[in-house]
Amino acid sequence: MGRSWGDSYQVHGAGCLFVGSDGAEIDVDFMDGGREVFDVWRLLRYGRSLSEPCELAEQDVRLALESLGSLLVEVRPGWFGVAETRASG
Question: Could you give the CA distance from residue 49 to residue 44 in angstroms, rounded to a whole number?
């Protein structure tokens, strides 16, 4: 387990688990090229790790992901990343 800005992190397999000083856990995997990706399980785990846990149904999280349409991209079935934006100019 390493430390970064007062928080800890642990590299695992294809990703990294970040744990904040408040105990909140953010777990991401990395695709080729370094893109961070996550799935519903990781979002549910994050919600449960908050100081005031957020218990959501898996279906509710899936619907929320779908509603974010242009902000997220499904990089493989069930795995999401932030959509790339290009500066206009």
Answer: 9
Q: Average pLDDT for consecutive 10-residue bins of the chain (89 residues)?
A: 70 91 92 92 94 93 90 92 70
Q: Following CA atoms 4, 31, 88, 72 in sequence, which dihedral angle do they give, to the nearest 10 degrees?
A: -90
Q: What angle do CA 43, 13, 20 make, to 5 degrees?
A: 45
Coil, strand, or helix at residue 82? Answer: strand
pTM to 2 decimals?
Answer: 0.79
For the beta carbon of residue 8, count every other beta carbon within 10 angstroms. Answer: 14
